[in-house]
Amino acid sequence: MWFLFIIIGVALFFFIRGNIRRGRIFAQAYCFLEFIDTGETLEEANRVAALACTSSSNIDLDRQLQIRAKNFIDHNFNGKQLPLIALARQKGFTG
């Protein structure tokens, strides 16, 4: 019985960890696209995007970025995150 609880706990841990990672990449990809659209270089856009949604970034600014990104995909990609990430990667996103 305990073995089953351990297996479920480990599976839940990896599921949550994967969702957090995907959410961070989504927000960073959106941040990258915002900077590219303003005329920044690929290097600068990737540098700024890499700093978004990390432990050293501003929580309030990260939340605003996440809200803008969610509104953007709701309007342009029917709420799908992967097309936005793919678009960012096509334009040079390295995250």
Walkthrough of the structure:
By secondary structure, the chain is mostly helical. It has one domain (22-90). The protein contains four helices and no strands. Helix 1 (2-37) packs across helix 4 (82-90). The longest helix is centred in the first third of the chain and has 36 residues, at 2-37. The chain is elongated. The mean pLDDT is 88.
Q: Gap between N and C termini, in Å?
A: 41 Å
> Which strand-content bin applies to the residues?
under 5%
Helix tally? 4
How much is the radius of gyration in Å?
16 Å
Helix content: over 70%
**Count of the domains:** 1
Number of strands: 0
Shape: elongated
Strand count, sense and barrel status of the largest sheet are:
none
Poorly predicted parts:
none
Mean pLDDT: 88
Question: Could you say which structural class the secondary elements and strand pairing correspond to?
Answer: mainly alpha
**Order of helices and strands, N to C?**
HHHH
